[in-house]
Amino acid sequence: MTGNFELPKMATINECAKIVKLAKYHIRQLVLQGKVKYVKAGKKYLINLNSLIEYLNNGETEAKTEEQDNNTNKIRKVGI
User: Fold this and answer.
1) Global pTM value
2) For residue range 58-67, what is the model confidence (pLDDT) as tens digits?
């Protein structure tokens, strides 16, 4: 099986914090909130660096607009 595919660049929370110059706590919160792609390897989280950098560049603007579009078309029951 010979295929041409690119493996994602993965790094631990500590390594990511050093690369992007953010606090480890903030990186960990992004992982736990599901805002960046990651894989759990034992007790460690391996974070997809491309996903992290994309999130830092774009923020949540795309996710918020999709969420707002989904909520505007729904009717919800209001309790009295």
Assistant:
1) 0.68
2) 987 654 545 5
